[in-house]
Amino acid sequence: MSTAASSGGPSYNSAPAAALALNTPRLLLRAFETSDAHAVAQLCNDKLIYETTLAIPFPYAQADAIGWISTHASTAAQGAGFSWAITLAKTGELLGAIGLHISRLRQTAELGYWLGVPHWGQGFTTEAARAVIAHALTPRPDGVGLVRVHADHLVINPASGRVLEKVGMTFIGETPSAAVKHGQPVDTRLYAVTGDQWLKQQAARQTT
Ligand SMILES: CC(C)(COP(=O)(O)OP(=O)(O)OC[C@H]1O[C@@H](n2cnc3c(N)ncnc32)[C@H](O)[C@@H]1OP(=O)(O)O)[C@@H](O)C(=O)NCCC(=O)NCCS
Asked: Which among 73, 75, 77, 116 has most CB atoms closer than 10 A?
């Protein structure tokens, strides 16, 4: 399945004001707007999402969504990261979120995502993650691009690990006590893909 993202546009170093829109076969990934806050709150106010994430509170109110969305423009303007709304291309329905937290010093990024529970198990996060990784790692005309995208997940969240495997990331290792959840230390599993690995995977896909 081809999920190549739209190419072109400004590079990450030129600090666009918002996430660039990315198209996949079923999805449109676009910048969040304040008007998404109600839908974000409805999807995030679910204990199943809270249980496997660290930064999403529960209960989750519309004010939380407004506050979160309000940070996106300055984060993007600093080149420190981008958040995309995962929406259905056909209907515009908001399904979830995906984002990159960028280290400009290292030219790497951490990938993060959540999807509303009613939409789980249909490959949407995998499809969105492929597009975002392609966008991050595809070499650009000015030679500026990220060299690596990584992500980690709590060990109690194998579905996230499966997403990372499906998008072609390599399992790096398990990190003991990498965070605290419910007041207890929790272990995480780290995955990564380099730009070179990604390009080789794309070339292999094109020849099969
Ligand atoms: C993790 C999450 C984003 C996955 O979204 P999704 O759209 O359902 O993911 P996909 O459908 O693309 O792929 C899920 C894969 O995990 C598999 N999976 C689901 N539950 C699983 C489990 N308990 N153990 C192992 N694999 C599991 C699915 O079968 C599927 O793999 P397959 O295609 O090989 O069958 C979603 O569950 C979520 O939002 N969880 C809450 C927030 C969160 O955990 N975010 C990530 C933080 S690291």
From this structure: 116
Question: Would you say residue 2 lies in a domain?
Answer: no
| The dihedral formed by the CA atoms of 67, 26, 205 and 136, expressed in degrees to the nearest 10 | -20
Give pTM, 2 decimals: 0.93
What's the CATH code of the domain at 169? 3.40.630.30
Dump pLDDT digits (tens) for 60-109: 999 999 999 999 999 998 889 999 999 999 999 999 999 999 998 999 99
> Mind listing the pLDDT tens digit for each residue in 121-142?
999 999 999 999 999 998 876 5
164 alpha carbon – ligand 1 mean position (Å): 9
CA distance 163 to 20: 22
| Ligand 1 contacts CB of residue 92 (under 6 A) | no
Instruction: Give residue 92's domain range.
Output: 12-207
pLDDT at 13: 54
Pocket test for ligand 1, best of 1, 24, 45, 115 (most atoms within 8 A of CB): 115
Please tell me the total count of domains within the chain.
1
